[in-house]
Amino acid sequence: MSIAFKPEETFRGDYSYRNSDAAILRFPFPFPEDKYMYSVNIEPHVRSGPSDVFLRPFDVDEHYIAECRDRAITLERDPGRCQVLPHMMLAQWDTLELLMENLSADYPEHFSLVKEGDDFGSRWTWTNRPLGIEQSFIFGDAATLPCEPFEYITRQAQGDFAICDQRDDNLYMDAGMVTSQADWSLEFDVGMSFMEWHGPVPLAHQTGVFERALKYLLMLRLGQPVRRLNWTMTINPRLDTSPESFPEWGTDRASVTPDNAGRKVHLRVELQTLWRLPRSNAILFPIRCYLASLDDLARVPKWGARLHRVLSTLPPQLVEYKGLTRYLPAALEWLARHDDGRELPVGTEAGVSTLG
Amino acid sequence: MLHSDIKSRPVYRALEPDLSAAGHLLVIETATLQPGGLASLADAFAPVAAKLHTWLVGEAQAVPGLGKPWHLPAVADVVDALACATRGYGIGDRLYVQGTEPFLWSVATAAAIVGFGPDQIRLCHAGSLQRRVWCTHCHGFTEPVTTNVVPCAGCGRHLLVRDHFSRRLGAFMGVMVDTEAPGEVPAIEEVFA
């Protein structure tokens, strides 16, 4: 399949990021019901689901080139957004192999991988046409790549990536490429255990969500990846909403009015997948981020109305944790115009095939 | 805002020796000792007295029952002593540390560098609740911090001191408090005295 990339769009400055109609219709809307609460919402990451973003294990869309460029800008300013603890080299190669194999198999027009063998020591040639990259290297020899393998391949992928090492019946976040995060710091979190890095999340600890999720993930099997959706809101289509750059984007939260909320306020959905890695036994945790403005979402009548209901019934602890406090009233006033109170069918599907 | 139930915050317990260990190193910040504190530690560690080394950091005190302790002026000297330790520490050794949180984590971090694994280190908080704070914006450290909001020693921003803790950095997270409304800094209160 051919993708019409939009290489010029930006996620900072003039924020020229826009979704095409097709991108809106495939948006992974996360709310099947009118109310939201945390749950262990993990399911097999199979090649199907209510949105086309689930059709391929690593989704590539029209924003691919622009997102890779935004990542490069962030890394230039703050190289610490990519960190790998020294014992993670095997997991780095596992990640490179997984991404190259899946991207080349699912998007042969855009990516190709030629291997002279499957094992360490084999010569591989990787071609990334959208970014104009051709690289021949020895699989397993980091000196034959321009940077370490995890950084190399995740600079060419959409979404953030963490690698969790598994030991002592726990998961430790021992590597990450994190340039489009919902306000968490890799520099602070790297090396933390599963419970530690989830420490600030309200309400969920008390209901045992994290104990159950950890138990489930420790049993994750090779070749049987799983997924879940997570979400927050972001003002402007900004990928780099890190704590490091909070002084740059925090003020935007005070700029929302009932009149501009439609174009300023974005629903930010993370498609989180989890993959057992074959050699290292670590878990790769890609966090693929999708952004849609309230304007975009309200063009799907079911989504505009449902988002209004979910946000108006959100527990106050979650409103505060997700940083919505200051602008939620303005966003709700805007969304109320798109909610006529009718009963909405359960499920996340758009329910329409063209946009109004 | 401050969440008091954040799970990354370490839980500390009173020190007691691991009787199966080969060697025991006890490091104490003397300024945090309560009257009689050394005597009760001496009681607790009596079963391993023959294999115990004690490092007292700060003002010297008489220590009946803790062997012949080393006296070190400051935590920086502990870090140096660990880094230069000619005696190799092995998997059977245990490190016990008592003091304020910045002290505990300075020692634990230095010990990790010379090979102490997390299971070999026991920490017990004593004395002031003062914190070391890591700025999420400039990545600088500020300490000691006893207030809910503190100007960052690195970049000068007013940081809200959160309960989220990183063992690797040995510090609590500090986040700019007035980003959304510049100049709106909440009342500064002494909360970690």
Distance between the termini of chain A: 26 Å
Largest sheet of chain A: 7 strands, antiparallel
Shape of chain B: elongated
Range of helix content of chain B: 10-25%
Determine the strand fraction of chain B and express it as a percent band. 25-35%
Biggest interface goes to: A-B, 27 and 26 residues
Number of strands of chain A: 10
Radius of gyration of chain B, Cα only, in angstroms? 18 Å
Cα shape of chain A: globular
Strand residue content of chain A:
15-25%
Number of domains of chain A: 1
Poorly predicted parts of chain A: none
List the helices and strands and how they pair.
The complex is a heterodimer of chains A (356) and B (193).
Chain A: H1 21-25, E1 43-44, H2 64-77, E2 82-84, H3 89-106, E3 111-115, E4 123-128, E5 133-138, H4 149-154, E6 160-167, E7 170-177, H5 186-189, H6 194-197, H7 209-218, E8 226-235, H8 246-249, H9 261-264, E9 265-276, E10 283-293, H10 294-298, H11 301-312, H12 316-321, H13 328-336
Antiparallel strand pairs in A: 1-8, 2-7, 3-4, 4-5, 6-7, 6-10, 8-9, 9-10
Chain B: E1 23-29, H1 37-45, E2 52-57, E3 70-72, H2 75-83, E4 93-99, H3 101-113, E5 121-125, E6 131-135, E7 141-145, E8 149-151, E9 158-166, E10 171-176
Parallel strand pairs in B: 1-2, 1-4, 2-3, 4-5, 6-10
Antiparallel strand pairs in B: 6-7, 8-9, 9-10
Helix pairs in contact in B: 2-3
Structure write-up:
Chain A is an alpha+beta fold. Chain A has one domain. Chain A has helices at 21-25, 64-77, 89-106, 149-154, 186-189, 194-197, 209-218, 246-249, 261-264, 294-298, 301-312, 316-321, 328-336; strands at residues 43-44, 82-84, 111-115, 123-128, 133-138, 160-167, 170-177, 226-235, 265-276, 283-293. The radius of gyration of chain A is 20 Å and the shape is globular. Chain B is an alpha/beta fold. Chain B folds into two domains: 23-125, Nucleotide-binding domain of ferredoxin-NADP reductase (FNR) module (Rossmann fold); 128-193, no CATH class. At the A-B interface, α5 and α6 of A face β9 and β10 of B.
